[in-house]
Write a structure and sequence with these properties.
Length: 369
């Protein structure tokens, strides 16, 4: 037997452990530009994080389909259970792509579910009452944040997500608020709270409406105006009756249509983030491009009749993109920070949820009596 080789610095040999030549191949491709500069590969840098997020989202979708649990909540829970993946820098670019780009295109596709005619069917008085309910919900989120000793940005996020359309609105509002003003841990905890509250409401509100003896239209308004997630609001309405389900759909889609003006108002309220501090005034006041695209999509959907298969495909695509965004956000969150924040961080969501239900019930019992 030959003695082991001495005097060799194995760490100085970059291919010493490259048994299959992957490192050598990657280096060769990176340096193939011809100018001697090493250029990072886009797809390989995105693949690890995005692939992990896609697998986690698929697992959440499978669990939701087989056990009937809310898909967004499952995406959050699966993502949080895999948050150790986000510690690897190689996953950051792919997770950022899923949490940002997928979110924006998912919100744009959501516009194909709303038309101006649907909002018109609600009528001026119920629509004004709905705006009042949403305003009270927003203020309740701010009040809850103050009670819990949190920043007003946490209250804006919780109130806006509860008032409009749950996780979708939270993702859009967080894009305006920014990481420099609200931690990603608080954002993830708000998403968890909103999803849990929406799942509980879908199970409880139809039964409460029945116990209170509400008519179909009253129950439809209560459920459509107070349940956060779109699918759960519609499902809760149809759990009461078909007529209540159709009316809850109109009420809920009217809330979704107010996403763009709500984001614009919040952007004006809080001013530019640290990243946008040096921009011109018109750039700071401009809406994010995906909110403008959402409005354009709503108007386009109102002007022409989109075929049902295309609308169904857009709804499925929107859900898939938003699920990817939620899962990626959870995977980038730190569980230690979530645990440090404690239960008090959920007070803004709980306050906004209770006020939303009470205000919606008051409208249903008085205006629609």
């Amino acid at each position: 037997m030959k003695p082991p080789m001495q005097g060799i610095d194995w760490d100085a040999l970059p291919q010493g452990g490259d048994l299959f030549g992957e490192m050598h191949y990657a280096d060769a491709v990176q340096a193939s530009a011809g100018d001697g500069e090493r250029r990072p590969l886009l797809l390989p840098s995105l693949a690890p994080g995005f692939a992990m997020c896609a697998v986690a989202s698929a697992a959440a979708a499978w669990l939701s389909e087989h056990y009937g649990f809310p898909i967004i909540l499952l995406g959050l829970l699966v993502g949080l259970s895999l948050n150790f993946v986000g510690r690897d820098p190689r996953t950051h670019k792919g997770l950022d792509l899923a949490s940002r780009t997928c979110l924006r295109f998912g919100i744009v596709l959501l516009g194909l579910q709303v038309t101006v005619a649907q909002i018109g069917k609600l009528g001026p008085a119920p629509f004004a009452a709905l705006v009042g309910v949403m305003t009270l919900t927003f203020l309740a989120g701010l009040a809850g944040a103050k009670i819990a000793g949190q920043s007003r940005y946490a209250g804006l996020l919780a109130g806006g997500a509860t008032a409009i359309c749950g996780a979708s609105a939270a993702l859009a509002l967080y894009g305006v608020i920014g990481k420099d003003r609200l931690s990603q841990a608080q954002f993830a905890l708000t998403l968890v709270g909103v999803s849990l509250a929406s799942a509980l409401a879908m199970s409880v509100y139809p039964a409460l409406a029945s116990e209170l003896g509400l008519r179909d239209q009253q129950a439809g308004f209560l459920i459509g105006a107070s349940i956060h997630d779109v699918a759960q609001a519609i499902g809760g309405g149809y759990a009461f009756s078909d007529h209540a389900g159709s009316y809850a759909t109109i009420v809920k889609l009217s809330r979704v249509a107010l996403l763009a003006p709500t984001v614009a108002i919040v952007s004006l309220m809080i001013g530019p983030s640290a990243e946008a501090a040096g921009q011109s005034v018109w750039r700071r006041l401009a809406l994010p491009w995906f909110i403008v695209a959402f409005l354009v999509t709503v108007l386009l959907n109102s002007a022409i009749t989109v075929p049902a298969p295309i609308a169904g495909f857009a709804l499925t695509g929107s859900k898939a993109l938003l699920l990817l965004a939620v899962t990626a956000t959870a995977m980038r969150s730190r569980m230690d920070l979530l645990l440090e924040m404690g239960w008090r961080a959920t007070i803004p969501v709980m306050t906004a949820t209770v006020v939303s239900f009470m205000a919606s019930l008051l409208v249903a019992l008085t205006l629609l009596a």
